[in-house]
Amino acid sequence: MKPTVCPKCGESLESITHGGIEVDRCCNCKGIWFDSLEAEKLKRIKDSESLDIGNPEMGHQFDQVDDDVDCPRCGATMFRMIDIDRYSIWYEKCPHCHGVWLDAGEFKKFKQNFSHKGILGRVRKTWRPRNVWKEGGQGGFSHIGVKKKR
To answer: 0.90 exceeded by the pTM?
Structure first.
């Protein structure tokens, strides 16, 4: 099933393509849905951060949502995750289809987390821990799952 509704604000999603990879962006809040490994592939493509056109302040407001967030692809309740790096990013990941929801401004930060420059950046990249959590071989984010209180 193709995602059509934003899991955060309930508005419609539009398909957009960059570098031959199609993602789905909310027409209202500008959050982005990435099917399994699409964010990983796009972070390596020049100018892919141009997909992330939303206001990061609006995206940050959606990090404060306490309700369960359902996967726009399969409907499963997604896990809240945090990518701890130069920029900490709260995002949602589906435990079933392994898709990822990034709020407005978070894909730019995600990509910047992997764009280390200079000698110190290259050393850091070389010694960086990878795949703190592996879900069926999926990964790339250095992330920690967060369980919410019920």
So the answer is: no
